Amino acid sequence: MKHIKNIYPKRPSPCNCLNLRRASRAVSQFYDKVLEPCGISIAQLALLRHVELAEKTTISKLAKLMRIDRTTLNRNMKPLVETGLISICAGKDSRTKQINLTPAGRRTIAKGWELWGEAQTAISGYLGDDELTQLTQLLAKLEALAPD
């Protein structure tokens, strides 16, 4: 839990959406800080992990799998292409592009996954099993507000 500072909660907003956005931003910043040694953010690790699991996928399939639009996916992939973590090449036909992990991408995922585990352990310890289970259930329930 070396990454978690003992800070008392800020006063919540009367707006549920704002409270969720603040919490989401704080958790993302926490994970990003833990992942700093491997040079990627939590969003980039998630994207790399989806590419790894999908194996030789297309941009359209990956966007659908990640539940984001193609434009956002393309924008998020750009720095990963520039740093040599993924490559994009022609797909089976001229309308598709295939996304592949590079060897550097695989090494980055391995290091990132290890650091991600540290962040997970810290969050679990911070919240405790019961609160973490409850949070996970509540987030799934909220995600159902926009099913696709």
Report the biggest beta sheet as strand number plus sense, adding barrel if it closes: 3 strands, antiparallel
The assembly state of the depicted protein chains is: single chain
Looking at the structure, the CATH topology is Arc Repressor Mutant, subunit A
CATH class: Mainly Alpha
**Uncertain runs with pLDDT below 50, 5 residues or more?**
none
Task: State the secondary-structure class.
Answer: mainly alpha
The sequence of SSEs as H and E is HHEHHEEHH
Q: Strand sequence of the main sheet, in spatial order?
A: 1-3-2
Q: What is the CATH H-level superfamily?
A: Winged helix-like DNA-binding domain superfamily/Winged helix DNA-binding domain
Report the β-strand fraction as a percent range.
5-15%
Q: Work out the radius of gyration.
A: 17 Å
What is the approximate shape? Answer: globular
Cα distance, first to last residue? 35 Å
Q: Can you count the helices?
A: 6
CATH architectural label = Orthogonal Bundle
Describe this structure in words.
The chain is mainly α. It has a single domain, classed as Winged helix-like DNA-binding domain superfamily/Winged helix DNA-binding domain (Arc Repressor Mutant, subunit A, Orthogonal Bundle). It contains six helices and three strands; from the N terminus they run H-H-E-H-H-E-E-H-H. A hairpin with a 6-residue loop joins strand 2 and strand 3. Helix 1 packs across helix 5, helix 2 packs across helix 5 and helix 5 crosses helix 6. The longest helix has 25 residues. The model has no long low-confidence stretch (mean pLDDT 90).
